[in-house]
Amino acid sequence: MPPPGPAERFAAGLPREEAARRLEEYGADVVARERRTPVWRRVLQQLRDR
Prior knowledge:
Layout: H1 6-10, H2 16-26, H3 39-48
């Protein structure tokens, strides 16, 4: 039988202890959302610029 490939070796993910350590060290894997200007405010700005 051939040795397991990369997909089989990492299919289970990190051990809980390593995941907890990385969460503590690096924080949660979250992307901050950019606050968008509401459409009504953009319309008012355009009307004001005329």
